[in-house]
Amino acid sequence: MNSAPQLPEDLFARAEAWAAEDPDPATAAELLALLGEARTDDAARAELADRFSGTLSFGTAGLRAALGAGPNRMNRVVVRHTAAGVARYLLDAAAGAYTPRAVVGFDARYNSDVFAEETAAIFTAAGIETFLMPTRLPTPVLAWAVRALACEAGVMVTASHNPPQDNGYKVYLGGRAVSDSGQGAQIVAPMDAGIAERIAATGPLAGIELADAGWTVLPAAGEPGDVQARYLESITALVPADASEREHRADLRIVLTPMHGVGGDTMSRALATAGFTDVHLVAEQAEPDPDFPTVAFPNPEEPGAIDLALDLARATDADLVIANDPDADRCAAAINDPEAGWRMLSGDEVGALLGVHIAARTAAGGPGATASGSPVFANSIVSSRLLARVAAAAGIAHEETLTGFKWISRVPGLSFGYEEALGYCVAPDLVRDKDGMSAALLLAEFAARLKAVDRTLSDELDALALEHGLHATDQLSVRVASLDELGTLMARLRSRAPESLAGSAVDIATDLARGSAALPPTDAMAFTTSDASRVIVRPSGTEPKLKCYLEVIEPVASAGDLPAARLRAHDRLARVRADTGTALGL
Questions:
Q1: How many Cβ atoms sit within 10 Å of the Cβ of residue 205?
Q2: In this structure, are 447 and 303 located in the same domain?
Q3: Most buried residue, 103, 395, 406, 550, by most Cβ within 10 Å?
Q4: Which domain covers residue 496, as residue numbers?
């Protein structure tokens, strides 16, 4: 019986045609080599078929995929078509009333600089006033520049915390192209569909014009108007300090890792400018390296990713570990917990701590902490409910949004927003997206103030548990073989919803696909029990995986009850996790 993959009849012809017009000799040669292997090898045939199985989909996260030749990979052909489509979208939106402006940035991944420069060349040829970052810089610098330079669009070439073989293309809109609440934010529907339509209509590659020159390279370090320095000036103004504050900050010992990404220099300069002078950089991960050699997966959430930072923290008797992901739009933190030793804080714990700190700064009229008007806190529906309680205690409005900063950043009046996946927006008037560097500054400021009165971030988490109950969170991820299986699992959950979780009856079962007055429809289910346990289940937007977000709230009678409350919460979470798996048929 022949088990070789069935291939489209024209597959080899399409691949040969692609290689013939590919402007990149490296990917053209790679494709020709794969073609040769595919004539005799099943694995090579399957790889070739996947590369030509369709066109890489442009969505609300832009593009993200493995590097390589073919329409279903990241390469110069796909990027040229994408840039031409974005340019057409901007010109159509302007309708001749103005000349659109765009800024393009890039990280240190393979081909990021090439993709960025070709994007600038295509934008310029199309008649768009274009700015190009002078060097590889973090994503938040690009997001800041969209607003600071009054641009209609920003493009960041990055795959954030994806594996080394990936790259991506993130698009922001601003200026005259969007309303005020979306200024400098990531695209949402129907913008993504509008851009995708124009990408599909770009025509043959040979018809996409690239300018030889004409775009503006933004000032580099040491030059007047240095773009990195301007960003640093903006975010360090969030944490001004008198002499006593600077003394407290100098007393806080920080370990910092950029995880082989592009945030090391910018984050180090931000901390030093703000007065944090006792900073120890993880040497093995300090310089940008697209191979990410010391980590299995360049994501601070992954087990083992911050082990080197924790080792350095123990060796230096540090107070705080800060880890940025490779493009520095996310921030992880670790503390020396009195009970557990050095441990990484969850995104929900950092979100709650920043909420407490920003609420106090807001009450005191802290500079830069709030947007104009009445302050509003927000978090995604899959994040903890603790921030809502923190906001209510401070008299601050709170909203929940769908998952993703494209939604969080659009909340009117936003002063602080976060999602559990280590993303925090602490200064929406500067960066209307998650920013791991400004968030790290405010977290370090909070830690320094606490240390000055002989308290720690761990003490603050205990205080939150005493005031609002112990909010414990966890995740269950179910990886499947195909996207079709995700639909099957969600259908099973809708038809056979769990009646109880950890022994408590499910009081509320909400199908979020129906939408509500507060939220647009999304493919997710939410279950809440009589004792406030909650599970939200949704398909991942980027991979064949079903994600389940679990939370229990355990009452705490007194400070002495905290250790027992943690054990009770841990046990409830384990039972909720098991019951969720049963409901999914696992």
A1: 15
A2: yes
A3: 103
A4: 469-583
